[in-house]
Design a protein that fits this description.
CATH architecture of the largest domain: Roll
Structural class: alpha+beta
Number of helices: 13
Oligomer: single chain
Helix content: 55-70%
Order of helices and strands: HHHHHHEEEEHHHHHHH
Shape: elongated
Strand content: 5-15%
CATH class of the largest domain: Alpha Beta
Mean pLDDT: 91
Strand order of the largest sheet: 3-2-1-4
Largest sheet: 4 strands, antiparallel
Low-confidence stretches: 1-7
Number of strands: 4
Number of domains: 2
CATH topology of the largest domain: C8orf32 fold
Length: 302
């Protein structure tokens, strides 16, 4: 039997960019490396299993999820999904970010097996919540990811790395994005993994795709800038760092990275200014201080 090969993920990602994505769940599975309809269905059955276990748990408590629940039930359903995941796997925060890995960890009977990063946990919660008919968006800062439940004019923020994270308080640094922006965070995580493994061309492609999906994703620009420095495209790197700073004016790492790129071009005054801004944004960010000392001839390297 010939397996039906899905379109390349580039085509699927362009559909997301154009706002015509049909299933975020399916896209997350494709980004996990699944290439055929059969492979994707096998994991959709696993997600069915997780969702079915949740429904059975709710049924045992006199509660059920309808296909299109009324708005007044959305908060309760969202909270029940959150509680079910934490009760079924109380040690959740781990290293997985791809949906397939997170699903396998969630289904593993070993209660001590860690499930996923904030990206992975948010992905799993999102696909379950969408199956329950909930309206989610995404909250992100430079290093963390949360869900936001929308019920009319009310917003309930959900931190999946904290067992007390339902209806949590979030800081001013978090920005709200449409839920498909989650895909950009997955691509960025995949890019970082490829970069650590020395697969630099794949990492650069992942960062480019993350930016394509979410053109307002500052991390994607910063990380692609790092890849451009490796390619000796210093002007291109500076452009990426500048865009990252434009999107997040407090992005100290992007200021430091741009400073180092400017320094390589001999633009020392501009580099010094960026290092000082980075230090002002985060006095504990040591790289900027080291680079500033290097620029002034005080330190041997940064």
């Amino acid at each position: 039997m010939t397996l039906k090969i899905l379109d390349h993920e580039e085509t699927i990602l362009r559909d997301i960019k154009d706002g015509s994505v049909g299933s975020i769940e399916k896209v997350l599975l494709v980004l996990s490396g699944l290439k055929t309809d059969e492979e994707i269905r096998s994991y959709q059955y696993k997600i069915d299993d997780i969702f079915g276990r949740f429904l059975n748990k709710c049924g045992g408590n006199g509660f059920s999820v309808r296909s299109k629940p009324p708005a007044y039930l959305h908060r309760t359903i969202a909270n029940r999904i959150f509680e079910y995941l934490w009760n079924s796997k109380p040690k959740r925060f781990g290293e997985y970010f791809l949906l397939t890995d997170v699903v396998d960890a969630q289904l593993d009977p070993d209660l001590n097996r860690l499930v996923g990063t904030c990206v992975g946990l948010t992905s799993l919660y999102s696909v379950l919540a969408l199956r329950a008919g909930l309206n989610l968006s995404l909250l992100a800062d430079l290093g963390h990811l949360l869900s936001r439940l929308r019920v009319g004019d009310q917003a309930i923020d959900i931190d999946h790395t904290d067992p007390q994270g339902f209806d949590c308080r979030t800081g001013e640094d978090f920005r709200e994005f449409p839920l498909p922006a989650l895909i950009a965070n997955v691509l960025n995580s995949r890019g970082l993994r490829n970069e650590r493994s020395g697969h630099f061309a794949d990492a650069k492609a992942d960062y480019r795709k993350a930016i394509m999906v979410n053109p307002e994703y500052a991390n994607g620009y910063n990380n692609r800038g790092n890849m451009r420095v490796r390619d000796e495209d210093i002007d291109g790197a500076i452009a990426d760092y500048t865009e990252a700073i434009k999107l997040n004016p407090g992005f100290c790492e992007a200021y430091c990275n741009r400073g180092m790129a400017l320094q390589r071009l001999g633009r020392y005054n501009e580099a010094r200014e960026d290092y000082n801004i980075a230090i002002g944004a985060n006095p504990d960010y040591g790289d900027a201080g080291k680079c500033l000392l290097l620029l002034d001839g005080i330190a041997p390297g940064c």
